[in-house]
Amino acid sequence: MLVLNRRPGESILLEGDIEITVLQAKERAVWLKVSGEGVTPTVVFGVSMVAAAEVRLEIGAPRRATIGDDEVVVEVAGPGHPSVVAQATLSLLVRPGQLVKVGGSLWMTVAPAESRTTDHSRPYLVLGGPAIDTELKIAFIRPVGNSVRLGVDAPGRRIYRKELWEALVAANRAALGADGDLSYLRQREKVQA
Fold first, then answer.
1. How far is CA 53 from its chain centroid?
2. Of 34, 85, 109, 161, which sits most exposed with the smallest number of CB within 10 A?
3. How confident is the model at residue 182, as a pLDDT?
């Protein structure tokens, strides 16, 4: 698990194609934005730790929601929709195993803290779906001033701080020249057994 601090406006990238940006961090709440290839429209959500096995999940710009016992399906509105303009949110208390599907490309759930984490009382937020192509675990370890310390685990995917990714891309462009093809940076390594 990669542990790093992120301030509002700072992002992490998964293999260069999914970006998770910290929008706001204060006390026990963190607002994140997930964007990138396959995440349409961009998903904005807030996470607050309520208890050892419960999280308050606030999803921005809901257009429609269907709430069942073990599953919630939320359709997120695109730019210009009244719920975007009004900054509307849907607030849910999510327990381990309860699935929240956001659009057709992303799902979220809560997983109990594992014994190897630094803080046993905090559950993980787990993101997945076709847009991410793996289970991304995010542990909100603690707020640090106006930033948050995150533990991020994405099996089979590399995780970068956005500013380091941009430096890597710039260095590769400089090495290859102006017409260099950098598409290999966005492709996942395929390991065949």
1. 19
2. 85
3. 61
Would you give the distance in Å from CA 126 to the centre of its chain? 8
Q: Closest Cα partner for 66 from 92, 29, 39, 105? A: 92
Mean pLDDT of 168-193: 62
- Judged against a pLDDT cut of 60, whether residue 120 lies above it is answered with no
Q: Which residues, at least 6 apart from 30, have a Cβ–Cβ distance to it below 8 Å? A: 22, 24, 46, 47, 48, 140, 143, 148
User: Is pLDDT above 90 for 9?
Assistant: yes
Strands (E), 37-123: 43-51, 54-60, 62-67, 71-76, 89-94, 99-102, 106-111
87 by Cβ neighbours in 10 Å (0-12 / 13-18 / 19+) ranks as: exposed
What's the rounded Cα separation, in Å, for the pair 26 and 131?
A: 28
Q: How confident is the model at residue 79 (pLDDT cuts 50, 70, 90)?
A: confident
pTM of the model: 0.80
Q: In what order do the strands lie in the sheet with 54-60?
A: 89-94, 54-60, 43-51, 29-36, 18-26, 11-14, 159-161
